[in-house]
Predict the structure of Adenosylmethionine-8-amino-7-oxononanoate aminotransferase.
Amino acid sequence: MTHAGADTPAVPVLPSGPDPLVARDRGLLWHPYAPLDGDAPYAVHGAHGTSLHLAAQDGTTFEAVDAMSSWWSAIHGYRHPALDRALLEQAGRFSHVMFGGLTHEPAVHLAEQLVALTPDGLDHVFFADSGSVAVEVALKLAVQYQLGLGRPRRTRFLALRGGYHGDTFAAMGVCDPVDGMHAAFPSLIAEQLFLPRPPAARLAGGQLVSDPEAVEAWIGALETMVAQYGDELAAIIVEPVLQGAGGMHIYAPECLAAARRVADDFGLLLIVDEIATGFGRTGKLFASHWAGIVPDIMCVGKALTGGYLTLAAMLCSARVATVVTNSPLRALLHGPTFMANPLACAVASASLDLLCASGWQGQVDGIEWGLAVGLAPARELEAVREVRVLGAVGVVELFGAVDVPAVTLAALECGVWIRPFRNLIYTMPPFVSTAADVADIGAGICAAVARVHG
């Protein structure tokens, strides 16, 4: 795909034989959740629009539609002229300055945009380097808030089984302690409280529907746990409606609404982690909108810069900010070196402008329809437990573990880049994906599952 108004992309130079880049990488670089001597990665030699130009170690080359949006961030695709321009123009002014004692237009303007876009009442912004750090800051803020109210015992958090909030230490503590990715560090992580995974919901007629009895039972468990431990808790933290890396689980919005009510009843804060779900991914601008709630604290990231640079943000209400400001500490005690990096803020502002101007709702609705149609044949495969779609998210869940290398290669041979994990083969396409792109993604995933798992 070529963006409107974009220059003709340069033809990438692909290796004619075994790719030396892949060989140089092996044993030198760690990759996420992979051993140094693991399966060789694919080398990227070019990217434009929704396409990646890849090469395998043996020299096999692929042009593939990126069904992952580079881990859910590149919602506008690659080499978008508006984002390229924002990056270059800011680099021509200055690339970075410390945020301690200084400010700059890209940070102020982006903060104003975020306050305008997010649910009403989130009036204050803290910029962080990554989603995990934004969660760390949110947890710190919740503890400082309770301390400011004279509640020093309220230092724990109530989270959800199946949740994932990042790989730094405080964030690891509120991830699923058993089925999450951090069970190797029990002695290093603060012990938190966990509710069962909320009941599943499915999309029907534009609404998320679930079993009312299961929802009521879950709400009862929430109320019981908070009544028992409320004087120890600073906040409830959740991924709203869609749990991402913990299992791509879609759950009932009524559970999110109940968390808001119970937090209010017991003097807790509600933190929503919208790092994966924000900026339209679930079919709402923010997944919190599915339940019609306003959190006390919201974390955003991933798609914030359109996938160009690492940046995240934590937003909070005036009520929370006032308590901290009036406390003896006064400041929110965090300050990354690259906080509010001007390049990242400038690109993020351009990305949000593009999101608002591009008709994202129609784009996501089209992707949702295309994925529902394109992934439907997977339901007939014996290896498949369930197919589910929400907004620009499609999931094929298997009964057993995915053969990741084999499924990845099979999909690439169909012209689709995916990165499965555990028993899940999923897609989060760029919002600029065409109907043909989405059809290719659906067909490629179905063909890969059929070929490898039957």
Q: What stands out?
A: The chain has a mean pLDDT of 95. The chain has two domains: 21-76+359-453, 82-357. The two ends are 31 Å apart (CA to CA).
